[in-house]
Amino acid sequence: MSYFNQTLDLTGRWLALSTIIFIAAFFGVRPVLAEEPMAVEQKAEEPAFTRVTSSYKVPDVAMLRQDGKKVSFLKELDDGRPVILTFVFVSCSAICPMLTHIMSKVQTKLDKDNQKAHLMSVSIDPESDTPAKLLEYAKKHGAGPDWDFYTGTREASLALQKAFNTYRGDKMNHTSVILMRSKPGQPWLRVEGFLSPDAVIEEYGTLSRK
């Protein structure tokens, strides 16, 4: 190959490499050259959820169950069974479907292991969530006889949200919180964040063995 042809060849290669580097820089991609060692960035994993043990003073408010029956929420809470409690609303399209899905899987796992717990879901949109809507919602998610949904007056719902420190000023600002208690009079385990049904079962199992 002549010197002239070699020069053209090298010039073409350099232009091609320059073009690749320019395009990569434009799109925010850092090209890795053949002999450049790959740098692996290690990021510390953040916990998916937090868990704390708390005591709550629950008011004895009247609520409506999904079957339309007016009940004392405190009596429902203290009927002797372990409790797994969430706050949701029917029209929610973000956190509530996830929480309800988790509760459904937990229900299935508890039934399979022949364990008893009272699953309780309280509406934070009682003005819209009638007992009929909650019944339909319960059926949609396969709720069994040990899983109840509650609505009532706005004041009653707010009183319960504030008692369990889940009130965030507006239904759209609520967070993912699951509360568990092994028996009446015992402290509550508060699990906040995003966790799997298996993680809930593990936390519940640890709590029930205490």
General description of the model:
The protein folds into two domains: 1-41, no CATH class; 49-208, Glutaredoxin (3-Layer(aba) Sandwich). The N and C termini lie far apart (84 Å). The chain has 210 residues and is an alpha+beta fold. The radius of gyration is 27 Å and the shape is globular. Helix 3 crosses helix 6. Strand 4, helix 3 and strand 5 form a beta-alpha-beta unit. The chain has six helices and eight strands. The protein has helices spanning 3-26, 73-77, 95-112, 131-140, 154-163, 197-208; strands at residues 49-54, 62-65, 70-72, 83-88, 118-123, 147-151, 177-181, 188-193. Strands 1-8-7-4-5-6-2-3 form an eight-stranded mixed β-sheet, with helices on both faces. Mean pLDDT is 82; it is low at 2-8 and 14-44.
Overview features:
210 residues; 20% strand; Glutaredoxin; eight-stranded mixed sheet; alpha+beta
CATH class of the largest domain: Alpha Beta
Total domain modules: 2
Strand portion, in percent? 15-25%
CATH fold-level assignment of the largest domain: Glutaredoxin
Would you report the number of β strands?
8
User: How would you write the strand order of the largest sheet?
Assistant: 1-8-7-4-5-6-2-3
| Element-by-element helix/strand order | HEEEHEHEHEHEEH
Uncertain segments: 2-8, 14-44
Q: Compute the gyration radius: what is it?
A: 27 Å
